[in-house]
Amino acid sequence: MRKTLPTKTIQKLLIQSLIIEGLLYGMTKIPVEQVEEEKEPVMVVEQPQEQPLTYEDRLNVLSSFDDLSIYQQTDNYILSKYVRNAINEELEQLETKEHNVSFLVFDLNQAKLFAYEGNKSYYGASTIKGVYIPFLVQTHPEVFERESYVLQSILVNSDNEAYAMLRNRYLQDPFDAYLEQMHVNPNVANNLYSDLTCFDLAKCWLGNDVFFKQDPYGKDVSKFYEDPYYSILHESFKDTYKTRSKAGWIDYQPDYVSTCDAGIVYDEEPYILVVMSDYPATLDRFTTLVSLLDLVHKEMVYGPIQTKNAK
Predict the structure, then answer these.
(1) Average of pLDDT values for 19-45?
(2) Residue 29: other Cβ atoms inside 10 A
(3) What is the 3-state secondary structure (H, E, C) of 255-289?
(4) What is the dihedral of CA 108, 286, 115, 127, to 10 degrees?
(5) What does the DSSP 8-state code read for residue 50?
(6) Confidence of residue 220 (pLDDT cuts 50, 70, 90)
(7) Using CB atoms within 10 A as the burial measure, which of 8, 144, 196, 281 is most buried?
(8) Residue 306: is it exposed, middle or buried by C-beta count within 10 angstroms (0-12/13-18/19+)?
(9) Nearest to residue 183, comparing CAs of 273, 277, 119, 136?
(10) Residue 307 in contact with residue 299, Cβ under 8 Å?
């Protein structure tokens, strides 16, 4: 009768055989010459990283809207019917036979724009002060060093006498060339106060944004814009966002009548907001409109608002 090895002995021999072959515990197997299949080379294409927009990119977007269309809008977002209808309803309340209103919303990071009658001219009143001070400080930094309180009075209290004093003192400075660099009509510099459009003020505030960030005195001067005596932007957002703005209002019937405000709203995605009208010195009238324009900006950035009642 044929004898068989005990089971334990068989297992022991098998383990020894596996060790010899180098197959146990991840040991490397004795190489055997093999012919590998030749693989085709894989082309790796690096995707270009999206570059942040430059000042020139943003300015070119604003400057591209030189027509007199009622609505002006970039094509890189969609507004919901809910917001459009709400704005139309508010405009029906504001626009009458006697009065006109214009506005502009411009997202700084994505250069998205929405405007209504953005190239219609209005008497800009004191909004020009918010444009002139950055020019003056860049041209004459000693003004901030010696007379920062004068600049503060102009921007916070809208001091007409202080503004006129500085304009007359530095009459020969090229304010017109400064405006022209921002694609704004240089003739605006010919008078203390001039006619402006929403697009004019948006371009100027685009320049202000660069000044605040890059000029040695920009950060300090910017603080004067943050708590003005009178501004619908500041009043509307003071409990929510920081704003920097300069309003203008006047009621010298019949030649000089307007209510305007312009500035930057520092939402998580900051944006320029401009409201202009020929209403006589009454910023409070535009509270609802400004709130709706904030919704416009939110839809620019985050997409259309979903509402059950939207039609």
Answers:
(1) 45
(2) 8
(3) CEEEEEEEEEEECCCCEEEEEEECCCCCHHHHHHH
(4) -60
(5) P
(6) very high
(7) 196
(8) exposed
(9) 119
(10) no
